[in-house]
């Protein structure tokens, strides 16, 4: 049985019914904390959806606004004592909005195109190259006419993203051998945005796994995992991508111990494939099998016991919890413990480390005003730590916080945990610790 509209609505009703309206989630919600509006809180959003389903209100612009302004950060799930699956409620409700005629046609088209470009490596590379040539006209930002079509508001357009780390757009080899006694065989998800903007991070991930006795397979036919689509309510496109990815991993799945992910948003969705394809007779079991093998890179290293690190990094660092790691996958301790094993590292905690930075998939593009407020708060907390390096396990957070650090002119580097681990494992002659570009002023 496929996911029929009726099945999805029944699932939405069952999930919203679990909310007892206690309000314990309110203080955890970044958009409620910023605005103080009940309709921009988890409880308020669930109440609106429930009221629409009960026929008390229409599925109108107010409901759409409440859903659009939600970060999907799932901090409310962490706070909720009743186990309300808010992330799933949001995805199901957004799918209803996108399936209807509520959104202005131009905005709908612009948002669909944005996801098409972001999740197609060829189109993304082309767009970024075109953006570089047009820099004299756009100042390195998204053209304001496009930014306005996407968000419906007038605000400073976001910067166009740049490749993180040194230019290194080589694809991963299909097989990379373990560099010490072989302990495991793992597969890695090269990702769509990751392979264009974070290829250097992908290569660092492979080297860290090799140093830990893992043979690494990077299946060539694997494309986008569908995370951005399911979060945006583009349900049918998302399901198509889930199935294609399952098909691509199928030839390898029995021979690998884990599918290692270095992007929090992708990992969180892959873990949920089993549940998201629950109603699909052809894919249900295969999806569950794949989901059971998914591990975040830090989680995997903690699970197998990390090899000894040899190089010192004498720096004070602070860790920003990506929402889809901390709230989506409940992974908080493993990255911190791993980073603390690097000789010389001093880890200091920032305030509100697990509060969303405003990146949230495409939120910083579609909701630029709230996203900018959240980024400003995150940068303040980073400054308070005095750290010289910020570490985070999600590419979206990394690029967005990096933009905030640059705009503030701060001399603070930001990188993925694997970049520090890669340096800690590498022979000193293999190169300098790089991470991302550091700003000249500060
Ligand atoms: S989502 Fe959970 S915490 Fe929030 S009001 Fe409902 S039951 Fe309470
Ligand atoms: S997902 Fe985040 S922004 Fe949305 S209601 Fe929950 S806590 Fe608030």
* Fraction in beta strands: 5-15%
Shape: globular
Rg is 21 Å
The low-confidence runs, each spanning 5 or more residues with pLDDT under 50, are: 435-442
Ligands, ions, cofactors = iron/sulfur cluster
Q: What is the second-level CATH architecture of the domain at 307-430?
A: 3-Layer(aba) Sandwich
How many beta-strand segments?
A: 9
Ends apart, CA distance between termini: 58 Å
Q: Count of DSSP helices? A: 24
Taking the sheet with the most strands, its summary is: 5 strands, mixed
Protein model, in words:
The protein is α/β, with parallel strands linked by helices. Among the domains are: 95 residues, Fumarate Reductase Iron-sulfur Protein, Chain B, domain 2 (Orthogonal Bundle); 124 residues, Rossmann fold, CATH 3.40.50. It has 24 helices and nine strands. Strand 8, helix 23 and strand 9 form a beta-alpha-beta unit. Helix 12 crosses helix 24, helix 14 crosses helix 17 and helix 18 crosses helix 20. It is globular, with a radius of gyration of 21 Å. One iron/sulfur cluster binds next to helix 3 and helix 5.
């Amino acid at each position: 049985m496929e996911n029929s509209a009726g099945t999805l609505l029944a699932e939405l009703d069952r999930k919203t019914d679990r909310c007892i309206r206690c309000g314990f989630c309110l203080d955890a919600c970044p958009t409620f904390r910023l605005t103080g509006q009940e309709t921009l809180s988890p409880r308020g959003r669930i109440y609106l959806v429930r009221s629409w389903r009960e026929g008390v209100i229409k599925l109108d612009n107010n409901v759409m606004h409440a859903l659009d302004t939600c970060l999907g950060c799932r901090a409310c799930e962490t706070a909720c004592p009743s186990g309300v699956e808010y992330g799933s409620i949001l995805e199901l409700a957004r799918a209803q909005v996108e399936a209807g005629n509520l959104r202005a046609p131009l905005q709908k088209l612009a948002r669909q195109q944005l996801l098409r470009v972001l999740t197609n490596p060829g189109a993304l590379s082309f767009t970024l190259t075109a953006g570089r040539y047009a820099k004299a006209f756009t100042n390195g930002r998204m053209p304001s006419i496009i930014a306005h079509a996407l968000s419906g508001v007038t605000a400073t357009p976001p910067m166009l993203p740049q490749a993180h780390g040194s230019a290194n757009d080589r694809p991963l080899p299909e097989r990379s051998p373990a560099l010490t006694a072989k302990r495991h065989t793992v597969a890695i998800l090269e990702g769509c945005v990751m392979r264009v903007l974070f290829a250097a991070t992908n290569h660092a991930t492979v080297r860290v796994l090799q140093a830990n006795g893992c043979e690494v397979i990077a299946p060539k036919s694997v494309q986008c995992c569908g995370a951005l689509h399911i979060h945006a309510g583009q349900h049918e496109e998302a399901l198509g991508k889930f199935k294609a990815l399952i098909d691509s991993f199928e030839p390898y799945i029995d021979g690998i111990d884990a599918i290692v992910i270095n992007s929090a948003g992708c990992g969180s969705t892959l873990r949920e494939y089993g549940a998201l394809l629950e109603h699909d007779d052809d894919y249900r079991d295969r999806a569950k099998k794949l989901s059971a093998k998914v591990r975040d890179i830090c989680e995997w290293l903690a699970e197998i016991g990390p090899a000894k690190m040899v190089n010192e990094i004498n720096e004070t660092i602070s860790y920003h919890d990506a929402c889809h790691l901390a709230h989506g996958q409940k992974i908080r301790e493993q990255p911190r413990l791993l980073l603390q094993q690097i000789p010389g590292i001093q880890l200091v905690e920032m305030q509100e480390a697990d509060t969303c930075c405003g990146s949230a998939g495409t939120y910083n593009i579609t909701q630029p005003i709230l996203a900018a407020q959240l980024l400003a708060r995150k940068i303040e907390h980073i400054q308070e730590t005095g750290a010289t390096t910020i570490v985070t396990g999600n590419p979206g957070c990394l690029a967005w916080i990096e933009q905030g650090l640059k705009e503030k002119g701060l001399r603070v580097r930001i990188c993925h945990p694997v970049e520090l681990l890669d340096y800690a494992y590498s022979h000193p002659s293999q190169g300098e610790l790089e991470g991302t570009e550091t700003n000249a002023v500060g």
